[in-house]
Structure formats: C-alpha cells, structure tokens
Amino acid sequence: MLFDFFRKRKTYIEDYEEERAQRNGYAPLVPEEDPEVVRKREIAMAASRKHTAVQRCEELIDAVRVLDDLKSEYQLVTAYLNDIQKIEEMDPRQREPITEAARQIGKLDTARNQFLNKEHTLSDYQYAQFQEEERDMPGIIRRFQSNEAYLEAIQKDMRLLEGEKVEWEMLKEDQLEEQKTLRRMSVGVLILAAGVVLLLTLLYFVMEMDTQLYMLIVAFLVVLYSSYAIIRYQESNREIKKSEINRNQAISLENHVKIKYVTIKNAVDYTCTKYKVTNSRELIYNFEQYQEMLKEKQRFRQTSDDLIYYSERLVRLLENENMYDSRIWLHYISALMEPKEMVELKHSMLTRRQQVRSQIENQMETVKQLREEIAGYVYESGADMKQVAQVLRQIDALNIL
C-alpha cells in the first residue's frame, strides 16, 4: 500500500508539472485524442463562435443606431453654425431691420417678464434646446431613465462577477494550501511510522519481544491515513479545476458586461452633457420648468399683438436670408442685438458640435472594432454564418466607416 501511495503521488506531481508547463507556454507530450471527441469539441466551438458573433451583431446594430443619431445631431448643430455665420457676414444695412425687429422683441420680452414677475431656472440655451426637441423629449426622457436603470443593473452585475471571481480565486488558494498541508503531514506520518517500525524491530531482535501486533497496528494506521490523504487530495484537485473553470467563466462574463457598460455609459454621459444635467430626475424637472415657461409664453403672446407682429417680421426677414431654422432665433434675440451674445452663442454651438464629434469618433471606433471582430468570426466559420455576413454587408453599404 505504501508503494501504491508513492506511485499515485508521483502521478499527481507529473500532472502538476504538465499543467505548469502549459501555463509557461510549453507543449508537453499528450496522447492523441479520440477523433470523435475532437469532432464534438469543434462543433461546440463553432456553435460558441456563432452565438458570440450573433451577440456582437446585436451590439453592432445598436452602435450603428447611436452613431446615426449622433450624425444627425452633428448636422443640426452645423446648420445652426452656418446660420450664425450668415448673420455675422451680413451687410450693416441688410442686418439693421433684423436688429431692429430683435430689439422690439427684446423690449416686449422685458415687459412680459416684468408682468409675469417670475424667475425661471432654465437658461435661454436650455429653453431653446427643449423648444427644438419638445416632441421628442418624452421619448428622450424614457430612454434616459431606461439607460440609467440598465447602467445600474450592469454595475451591480459587474460587482457580483468581481466578487465571484475573487471567491473562486480564494477557494483555489485554499485548496492549494490544503494540498501543501497534506504533503507535509504525509511526510511526517511516514517518518513517524518508520521510527516506530524501527523501534519495534529493535525490541524484537534485542529483547525478543513479540511486536507483530504493534506492527499490524502501525501498518493499519498508516494505510488509514494514506487513504484519507489520497481521497482529500483527489477532492482538492477536483475543487481546483472547478474553481479555474468557474473563474474563467466569471472573467468572460465580466468582459462581455464591460462592453455593454461602456456603450450605455457613453450614452448616459452624452445625454447629461447635452442637457447639462446630472441625472434623469433633473432632466424631468428642467423639462417641466420648460413646459411651464412655454405655457406662460403662450398665454402672454395671445395678448401681445406687437410681439407676434415683430416675431413674424423677424422670421420673414431671416427666411429671406435662407436660414436653416428662422424661428429658432426667436429664442436667441439677445444674440441678434448684441455681438457679444452672438459670440457666446457661437462658442456654445462650437463646443456642442465638438462634443458630438468626439462622441462620433468614439462610436465609429466601437463600430469598427465590433465589425472587425464579427468579420473574424465569419472568416473562421465560413458558410455557417451567412446571416452574420449579410449584416456586415448591410452595415458596409451604409458607408459609415
């Protein structure tokens, strides 16, 4: 039995050395695998690649949609900047009627504000922003709330996966430490048993003492402990392998969740930056303030013929200059009256466009990476991914890269 134990221990050591060689990049000699096992593993790997490719296609489609929205936003801001440039380049005599109409509207707005005697928390820029997106704001708010909730859920999943990964690492370390303890104890037991056997042998030959029973007891104890150590060592090996598999699965899931986290985080950050808020509750509050302001403006405009007249006059004057959106300037009257205000407005629009451009570049890089990854899966799998390849062709047809 002792020799059996040493042979099994040598096998465990050889297995450990083989595993360490694989981690260090060496390729130990292994027996040739059963072709049927290889075929089943290749089928499973192909199915896994296809499943991953489909997931990446879904992420790619979402990324392309976000990119399309960003490009539309960029075109809108560019159109407003072109209008500002047209106004700045106008001849003074050509701009005078526009300035005069804006001045009259400004006076009426002052009178209206005094009449209402109420302070508003929204800036002219925020008001104009809500004005141009009023119909879309309920959907934007719902999407913002959904993204925040999804982001919170993803963060929770990431924390759970990180904790699970650490837990499996600790379990593996515990099992390795237990194996070291078993090895040390086994050596100690063998040394102790050898000492007892030697002592009993001396008693037998020197004192002619009957030590056969004691020999059997020592042998039984050694066999009993050896059985326990072997069983515990085998269980420990199984736990180590299980820990490694589960830890790798947790890492894979964590990497997949991080990709989703980056996409949703970018969308949430962009919404916060665009509307100058910190969360959806603040955006809802600002939109409610806008709606209240809008109602007040509408009530006052119904009783102010002069304001309507000059507003329409300003719109007609701007339409004659082929502006992209003439009515939006009703919310930027101060910019039409004061060059300094126009400069600040232009700077705000340039900043806004730069932010959108940065988002577009980041999103295009995301789309490019996803497309390359999917193309790699298609190249590896060939005809098994016709639908995935069709998605790639449709994305390429959009000429977004």
Write a structural description.
The protein is mainly α. It is 86% helix and 0% strand. The chain contains 11 helices and no strands. The protein is elongated.
Give a brief rundown of this model.
The chain is mainly alpha-helical and 401 residues long. The protein is built from eleven helices and no strands.
Q: What is the chain-wise order of helices and strands?
A: HHHHHHHHHHH
**Count of separate DSSP helical elements:** 11
In which range does the helix fraction lie? over 70%
Oligomer: single chain
Biggest sheet, open or closed, and with what strands and sense?
none
Structural class, from helix and strand content? Answer: mainly alpha
What form results from the Cα inertia axes? Answer: elongated
* Radius of gyration, in angstroms, nearest whole number: 38 Å
Uncertain regions: pLDDT < 50 for 5+ in a row? 1-14, 25-30
> What is the end-to-end distance?
70 Å
Number of strands: 0
Average predicted local confidence, pLDDT: 77
How big a fraction of the residues is strand? under 5%
